[in-house]
Known about the structure:
Blueprint: H1 5-18, E1 28-32, H2 37-52, E2 56-63, H3 70-83, E3 89-93, H4 101-121, E4 125-127, H5 132-144, H6 149-152, E5 158-159, E6 162-163, H7 171-180, H8 182-185, H9 201-216, H10 221-250, E7 251-253, E8 259-262, H11 263-267, H12 271-285, H13 294-306, E9 312-315, E10 318-323, E11 326-331
Amino acid sequence: MGPHPAVAQVRTSVRTGLRDLVGADSGRVLVAVSGGGDSLALLAATCFVAPRLGLRVGAVTVDHSLQEESAQRARAVAAAAARQGADPVSIWHLTVTGPGGPEGAARRLRYEALHCAARAARADAVLLAHTRDDQAETVLLGLGRGSGARSLSGMPAVNGLMRRPLLDLPRSLVREAAEASAATLGVAVWDDPHNADAAYARARVRHAALPTLEQQVGPGVAAALARTAALLRDDCDALDEWAERERGRLLRRGPDGTLDVDAVGLSCLPRAVRTRVLRLAALAAGAPAGDLRHGHVTTLDSLVMTDVAGSVADLPGVQAHRAAGLLRLQRRDNRPADRADVAG
Length: 344
C-alpha cells in the first residue's frame, strides 16, 4: 500500500521545494519544528524525501518560553526529529522582549534564531511549515493595516535561506498528513494556545474573520486570497526590478557626500516606480529602514512633482531639499552613506 493521500501530497510539495538544492554546497536542510501539526507533517515528509534526493536533514525547534512546560515540549519535539533521522537537532530557548509587542518580538527573535541555527549547521535552507491558510491570514492582516502591494503579496515561497514548501496546500490537508504520520513521529501534535487567543490579531483573523468571510462570501476565500498574493508578488517583483534599473540611471553621489536624484527624469515615471526609487534613494542616503514610512516617501514624491526650488523635507536621519532639476538628500550627521548603494 502507498502512503496516505495527504502524506503523499505533502511529500510531493516538499520534493518540489527541494529539487533545486540537489548538489548544493552542504546538501543539508533544516526543518523548523514547533510541535504543531503543520511542522510535524513537514518534518515527516522532509525526512522521507530529502535523503532520496541526496540531501541531509537537520531540525531546529524554538522555545519562546511563553507557556509552562515549553522547555519539556521542545525536548520532546527534538527527540521526535532525532528519531526521524534528523541530524543535527538543536533547541533554541528565547526570552521574548523588545519592540513590536509579543507577536512582533517573538517573530523577530524566532527568525534570528533560525538564521543562527542555519549558520551553525551550515545548512543551505530552513524549511518553514506555513500553509495556504497562513498566507490568506497574512493578506487579510495587511489589508486591515492599510499596507502596500508588497505586504499584500504575502509570504514568499523562497526568501533567502527560508523556504515554505507547503504554501500552496490547505492547512486541513497538512494536518491530516500529520495525524497520518503520528505513529511514526512518536509525539503528540501540540496546538499553541496563542493561536486561539483573541488578544492576538492573527488569532482573530483565523478564528473569526476568515470563517465569517467563508460563510458570507462563499467557500474558497482562503485560496482566493493566496492566489491574489501570488499575482501581486509577480507585479511587485516587476516594479522593483524596474525601480532598480532607474536607480542606476537617476541617482548620483556628489563629492560632498550628498545624494542627488534627477528629479526631472524621475517625474516622468509612473508613481509606483517613482516612489520605489525614492525609497531606495532615502535608504542609500542613510535613512534607517525600520523608521522610513510611507508618509516619508510621499513627502519626497511631493518635492519631486511640485518642482518648488528650496523646498525642504525632514526624514529619519536624512534631510531632502529641492534644487534646480534635482532632489538632494543629505545625512543629518553629514557623513556619506555607503557608496556601493548608488551609481557615480
